[in-house]
Amino acid sequence: MPENLPIKIGDRQYKFNGETLSIYSGAVHYWRLDRDKWDDILTKVKGMGFNTVSIYIPWEVHEIKRGEFDFGQINPSNDIDAFLTLCEKKGLNIVVRPGPQINSELTWFGYPIRVLDDPEMQAQTAWGSKAVLTQVPRPIPAISYTSDKFFAETALWYDAIFNILVKHQYPKGKIIASQVDNEMAFFFHINPYESDFSPSSIRAYQAFLKEKYGSIDKLNQVYRSDFVSFEFVDAPRRFSAETYKDIPFHTDWIEYRERYLIDSMDRLAKMIRARGFNMPLFHNYPHPLGPGGSVSGITTPFNLSGLEEKLDYVGFDIYSRKELYEHVKTVVSYVVGTSRFPYIPEFIAGVWPWYLNPGGFEDEEFVTKAALMHGIKGFSRYMIVERNRWLASPVRRDGRVRKENYDMFRRINEMALGHKFVNHKRLVDVLLLANRDYDRLEAASALISFPGDFLEPLLGVSEYPNFMITSEKNLGFKQPVQQEKANWFMKNYKALSDSGYQFLLSDTQLAADRLKEYKAILVSSFEFMGASLQRKLVEFAKSGGTVVLGPVLPNLDEKMFADTTILDAIAGVKSKPLTSGSETLGTVYPVGSGQFIHLPQLDDAEKTLGVILDGLKAIKVEKNDVRLDLTVHALPEEKNKKLVFLCNPTADAIDAKVGIGTSFKKVTEIWSGKEARVDGQGWSDSLPAYTIKIYECEG
């Protein structure tokens, strides 16, 4: 984004002319609505308190034939220029989403069918057949985003649509951001041996290896191989590792898949910039799994930090229900812990007709409060206006409203804007990191290959790698790292949640300067650990931080060569045991002004982390029931006020007694306006099943 523009993105905020901008958006599909209904529908959207509209712009709908487009000349509802002008007259900011892929439950996912039918642009499976997206209403070929011909075709679409969009970008109009493509995840082929093995992708993979290693001799040294040039290196088509020395050959393919997504979005972004669009650019990864599913779902093949080196911000989509609170918590905590602007590009409002167990507006109230609770700063409700192949939105396509849904969204927006949620900061001292090295190994070790998405519920297992479909080989280590790493992560996650310590999630690619926000970093470690990560953790400890790791101190790097960076940092220091009573829990190694704490096991993770984090005076909440969850937020300029979210994510009513270690004179639940019963440093309240209450606490 050009430096001279008034928009600045960073520190989890979207700044516009020096002021923090709230982006509470709803999706409206102009081409699916009668043009004479536009005005009334946008009035209804604004009446719910939405200050922004999010607009898909479908190549598939606008193209008449190659290089020719209908922007209202044939179908009046295709007049995107007129729709943007009307949004501006209504005082609504605009986020555009021009693809080339938009999904949107369109038959061809937004592409002209001629693009899908061209073999030169199709992704391939490991067996050379075309990769197929198993999507409703019908399967379609997946596109290879390494195909030069595909980008040449996209250029025709971008030439046409950005000729219109640049006229409406700020300051001429009210477009404040554009999405780059949509949910790029190999068309839901998350399994690494399913896609993309097209000739152009293999060439890109070989170029990636050449960039990474520089010479074929260095690659042969790592792979323990004898290739004569990079053009003879083929991608792994299945997991065949027998020892840890075979790991780099497989995990390089996983790393390439991350780069595939990053490089293709970067190429599209450069095409957008070349056409004069200067507003922020973002991307939305499809929602990952989290606790209860595959821990690697929040990292590979997604690489949020890597993609934000190319784009302005990146988010995950969330389609969830009240019973899946841990999913919402995990995804939001990860985005808040990682992104420069925590945003949900698609946030459930209504459902597609084939959605399983869709729930109702009560679910949407709950998951919205849950996202705000864990620190989200902006979102787009999808869909805020109903259309074909979508049900239960607050505004119908003819302008009528569903009163309960409409009133709920209005109240949410009024509350978030009125209490300046966007300016609040979560008070957190602990960061739990997913280790990307191990997540790559988990992905690489998948033994079953199948496309995901709508086949997933039929097969009963996830396309994300997890313990059900990954290899159990220990590869020469004490235990199978690809499986044990999830156990270690989950023990830490559950202990932090149950005990009330305030924490966020990220992964080990997070920039070193972001680690400085926290007192303690928790990360799994086995016999190998990436060389750059070892250096980053040592520097964090030297600068005063606490690194908690285990079960094994690493002596190898990610290429399986000796690397004793951490071992060297703690060698010769005067260590001491970490104890609880007469029990030894681990070992403390002072490093610089900080420390490493090695935990060889986590039999009682809550007790062990309690000893460590209490010693650091880490922020902690008090609760009388382990099932409750709390987060604490504050405005920097208001020292005597806190905003506290209290969640009952269970099917049982709970009489709660909670506190955050500070006395308050008045505690008011802002959704109902009722005061809670204050008692010393805590307060009491009754929470029905699946309820989140939000308290303004005044000292």
Structural summary, described in words:
- There is one protein chain.
- The protein has 699 residues and is α/β, with parallel strands linked by helices.
- The chain contains 19 helices and 32 strands.
- The strands form seven sheets. It has an eight-stranded parallel sheet.
- Strand 22 and strand 23 (594-598) form a beta hairpin.
- Helix 8 packs across helix 13, helix 13 (436-444) packs across helix 15 (481-499) and helix 15 packs across helix 19 (605-615).
- The model has no long low-confidence stretch (mean pLDDT 94).
Catalogue the unreliable spans: none
Question: What is the strand tally?
Answer: 32
Mean pLDDT figure = 94
Number of helices: 19
What's the helical proportion of residues?
Answer: 25-40%
Strand content: 15-25%
Radius of gyration: 25 Å
